[in-house]
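ok so I'm stuck.
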Amino acid sequence: MHELSDEFYAYRKNINYNDKNLSYLRPYYNFMKNHVGNLSYMTCKHACKDRSTLGNNQFHFNMHKLNVIDSLILEKELRDNLFRNVAFDYLLKAHDSPENNKVFIDDFQRVSGNNAHIKEIENLYHGIRNMQPNGPIPSILVMSIADTPISLPDIAKGKKTVFYFWSATNKTHYQNLFKRVDELSKQKPEYDFVGINIKTDEQHWKGILDYFKLDSKKQFRSDDFEEITKKLILYPMNKCIITDDALIVDAFSNIYSNF
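replied:
not stuck anymore, here's the structure
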């Protein structure tokens, strides 16, 4: 760390944590997110005896963030949005144990049970809880090239499967993704690589399959963007879900990582 002068943080004496007019001003909101993170880090540095938790343990660090927001921010909209940011940042990115997730969500509800985004956050928590290893992949219906509905468990039954996701809204993403899947299919022939398309109309989807000469038996699409993104936690779009006989092996893998 750089040595900082005693006056480096003097500006904090003048911070207004509760200016309702600034709650949705992006620079103010971004500053508050970073400020909460810095205060949480410094709190941990000075108060926590276990040095291994300092910035490395996401559960521990985000619990500090909840307490910092609770102690400093009174203006409800800013408070709710900052709490939401912490919850999404932790639940989506940390991929922590179910036990830690439960402790986190319980503490979140304690300090922000009346949060305007509470339903969204609880849905995310329950979605992640349902995507743990050895559990069944959610029984979501998708459409085949023949416009026939089929569930994800039926697609994955009796084999090792990697589900990946793409949308026609991002051409660069799906072009790179198809190349990556082609490489992996040769490296790992024991897996079926199954593409699930979202946010694309049927004819456009079929046109892309035809243009790239993709195996249509391993390509499906969903018309229900909300259901599939919530139940499968589609974040980020490079994620893939690995299953063995329709049971989840890893619901938060990355198609560009080794597995």
